[in-house]
Amino acid sequence: MDSFDNVNASAARISYVEPHQEETALQADFELRLGEHRPVLPAPASAGGGSSRTATEGNRRADLIPKSERCTAANFVRARAQLVATLTCANVAELRREIELAAQTSTPWSGATGPSAGGVDSSRVYNDVVASSYAELQRFQNHASHCKPRGLANQTAMAHLRSMAAARFDAAPWNIWGGQRLDLGRAAAEHMRGDTTSSPFVSLSEEASQLLLSPDDDNEYGAKVIAENANELHTYTVPSITAWTADEIVSILEDGTEDDEPDLAWVSDTPTEEREVLFLGGNLDDYRTASTSNPYRKSGKED
Description:
The chain is α+β, with helices and mostly antiparallel strands. The protein is built from ten helices and six strands.
């Protein structure tokens, strides 16, 4: 794991494919398109007036769908929540707002989509989506700001995903991943080996207390030393699509070359006590959901 101060004992650098120059424009276009498909609540009908429903082409087509085949309000809200979690890398506060908006939008559907429509349990949808599409991870830090990668610190998790999607599109159908996913897998492996010089990743743990059991206690940059010396313990709830586990990194490196075998062997042998997970992106602080003083800090340590 990298240390809470981002100290690196190695001066070696790892290769990484730079994102496309048009990344910012692509991201803005993506957010705009998602917003365009967000339904708008109809205005209340005036007294004595007729239906308040806007007669759009989409509504006219929807009226032709048999009631038994229509999307229920609950399914609509859940689908919107899943899209926000996986396509926009929303944090949990943004996820909750989107669920509430979708639930309000679907309110007029009651009675129009069959007996299963009813009211939507927004809290249940939120809990289900968080459980299925997010990962709660922890990180020891000296300060709240110590959650940036040393490479590509200004590139968000969403920008990384967009860049990978663009690379897959450009390389299809001959190589749906291009070379970027393998390059990132190599960068992730080097990060886990301790070389964070230009890494776009940030280290976290599935369970912070387990770092105290790490066998690398003689390493000044090791997990146990970090856990016993950091000032603070922060909790982050990140979209699962942004988190890279050791198993996932191994599966990527298995598609590499003979030159990848040392990294493959190293990651495969990562101490299970550490349960390290890497976050890809420079905006980890957007996903912070809790912070506290480090309860495992050894007494007598100076800041």
